[in-house]
What we know:
The protein is of the alpha+beta class and 758 residues long. Among the domains are: 9-147, no CATH class; 153-234, Ubiquitin-like (UB roll) (Roll), CATH 3.10.20; 251-344, membrane protein fhac (Ubiquitin-like (UB roll)), CATH 3.10.20; 612-758, no CATH class. Strand 23 (570-584) and strand 24 form a beta hairpin. The longest helix is centred in the N-terminal third of the chain and has 21 residues, at 9-29. The model is unreliable at 1-15 and 318-330 (pLDDT under 50).
Amino acid sequence: MLRIKGFHIYFLLFFVTLATLFASCSTEKFVADGSYLLDKVELRSDAADFNATQLAQYVRQKENSRWFSVFKIPLGTYSLAGRDTTKWINKTLQRIGEKPVYYDTLQARLSCEDLRVAMNNMGYMNARVALNTKVRGKKLKAIYTLIPGEPFQITRFNYDIQDSAIADLLKTELSQSIKANQPRQFTVAALDNERKRITKVLNNHGYYRFNKDYIYYTADTIRGSRGVDVTLHLTKYKESGAAGQPTLHPRYIIGKVNVMPGDSTGLHLRRGVIADNTLIEPGKYFSATDLQNTYNNFARLGTIRFTDIEFREMPQFDSVTIGKIFDYSPVSLRFLETNIKLSHTKPNTISFQPEGTNTAGDLGAAAILTYQNRNLFHGSELFSLELRAAFEAIKGLEGYSNHNYEEYGVQARLQFPRFLAPFSTREFRRHSNAVSELSVSWDFQDRPEFHRRVFSAAWKYNWSNAKRNLNYELEAPDLSYVYMPWISERFKTDYLDNVSNRNAILRYNYEDLFIIRSGFSISYNRNDDVAIKAKIESAGNFLSLVDKVSKFKKNEQGQSKIFNIAYAQYLKFDFSFTRILRFDPRNSLALHADFGIAYPYGNSKVLPFEKRYIAGGPNSVRGWSVRELGPGSFRGTDGRIDFINQTGDLKLNLNAEYRTRLFWKFDGAAFIDAGNIWTLREYAEQPGGQFRFNRFFQQIAAAYGLGLRLNFNYFILRFDAGMKAIDPAYSTGRAHYPIVHPNFGRDFTFHFAVGLPF
C-alpha cells in the first residue's frame, strides 16, 4: 500500500467545485436567445400511492448527467472547449465531455403522450399528464405531473379456445391463470404475461409452431364503471400463405435425433456424455424447455465451442398406426427430425502470466505457467497443471544471512462437468448442472526466518438451481498438511522460545499442522442487485471421533497427534449480504454487510493462521492497509510479527458505496466503511483484542474516501483513496477521531485492486 503525505483533499474539492461553477457559467453564455438549457427533469404524481419515478424511461429528454447526482462535470468539460474544433484540445474536451441538452417543446409534448400511454397500459385508462416549466435565466426546469386517476379492474376473465385438442390440454392449466370473478388491475403487462404463459405451456407439450400471435383479447366495459370483462381468444392454426380453412394446431413428436460434428474434426465426446446432456429424445413431444436446457448443457462443456440445433419436419407416417398409438388424426400430429451439430475447441492450451508484487514496500516478481486440457477422457473433463514461482527482496531484516523470499508451487486440478457420486441417478445428473472437482497442490516457501511446506488435496461439488438463482458448493473432504522443516535459531530465540516474549498465537502457527475439514456454502444472486452468501465449515470432528476410539498420542501441549502431527479442530461460519439500489443508468448505491465467526475447540486453542480473519485493505475498511486494523483496540508494536498478531476469530464489515458513471471507461465512487475484527479468547499478546458485548461498538473503526475505476466490462481496475474517520487503536484524543483532526501522513491510505470490493 502507498501512503501520500501532504495531499490536500479539501483544496481538490474546492477546485472541482470552482471548475464546475465556471463551466456552468460558460455554458449559459453560448445559449441562443429564445432557447433554454434543460437543467432538470422532475416527475411528480398527484396520487400518493403512485410512484412517478417508475416511468422516467418514457421522458424523451433528460438533463445532462451529474457525477454523484450533483456535479455536471461532463457538461462543464464540454463547455471548456473553444469554438475552433480543429485544435486537438477542443476536440478532446468535447469527446470526453457531454453536449448541452436544450429544451425541445416537441419532445416534451411527445413525452407527455408516452407517459399517458404508459399509464393506460398500467390500467389507468383516464390518466392525464400536466407539464409545467420554471425558467431561471437561460436554464429551464421541466416538471411532469402525472394524474393517473383510479385504475380499472378485471371483474371477469373468460377463455375462448377454438382448438378442441388444446382446450382439453389446458383444462388444468387455465385454473392457474387470472381467476374469474376476482378483481385484478387491468394492465397490458398482466394480459401479455398470460399470453406468454399459455404459449410456453403449449411449446413444452409438442406445439412446435405455436406462438403468442394466435392469442388475442377483447375487453368490454360498462359506462360509468371501472370494471372490465376480458376474454382471451385462442384461434386455430393456419398455414402461412395457405388458402384453406383453419385446422387444429399441429402437435410434434421427436422422431429421429442425429448428433453430428459441426466441422471436419469430428466428434470428440463419448456417446454417453452426449446422451446425458441431450434432453431431446425420440418419442417425446417437442419441448422448448428441453431445447433450451440442451443448449445450456452443451454450453457448460469446455470442449464445445458452438452448438447448433435444427429441426426438420418428417414425412407423414401411416394414418392407421398413428391413430392406434396416439389417438390423433394425421392432420394434427407430425414428427420432427432433430440435427444437433457440435463444434469443438482446441483441447490443449498453454499460458504464461507474469506478476509484480509489492508487500509492505518489498518488491518482487512472480510467474505462472499453466497447461490445460479441456477433454482429458473425452467427456469434457478439464485438467489443468499450474506451476508458480515467486521471488521477493526483503528490506530491513537484520540478523539473518539471507534476505530473500522464494516460493515454488505446483497445483493440479481435474474438473468433471457432472455430479460424480456413487448413488446418483442418470436423471439427477442430467438436471443437476453440477461440476465435480479434484485438486492437489504442493507449495514450497523459503523465508529468511523459516521454511514452510504446504500440501493440500480437496474434493468438491458445485451445482446450481437456475430457477431459484441459487448456487451450492460442497467440500468433502479438504485436507491440508503444513510442515516446517527449518526455523532459524535467531527467530526461535527472539520470538518462539523467549520466555519474556512468548506468543501463543505465533508459536502455534510455526508448528506442523494437519487439517481435515468439510464445508458447505449456498449463494443467492438476483439480477446482480441482491447477493447473499452463507458458508459453514468444520475441521477435526472426524479425527476427534477416531481419537476417542484409538487413543492418539499427545504432545507437550496436550494435543492429540495423528502421524505425529497435531490436528486442528474448529467451527467457522460466514455470511455476506449485498444490495444495489439503482437510481438511474448512471448512479447507484451499493450496501454491503459481512460477518464471520470461527471458534477453535477440542484439540485447538488457536485458529490456524489461514483461517483467521484480517481487517483493512481494499475489500474491508479502506482507511487501513491490509492487516493494519485490529483486533479490537489492539495496536501493533512489532512489524515483524504483527501480521500474526493482527488477526482475529470474529469479523464485521459494513460498507456503503455510491457509484457513478464518469466518462469513457472511467467510473467514480464515494464510500463509507466501518468494521473490525476481534478474538473470542483473551490472549496476552493482543491486549484489547477480545470481543465483549459492552464495548465492541466502541471499537468499530470507520473510514471514508473516493474511488476511481477503469471499467473494461470484462475486468475492472480499481483505485481507492481512504481516510480514517474513527481509529479504535486510540481511546481518546485527536487520534481517536481523525475525521475531526485529519493527519494525511497518518490517516491516508491508497489502494489498488482488480474488481469491485463487493
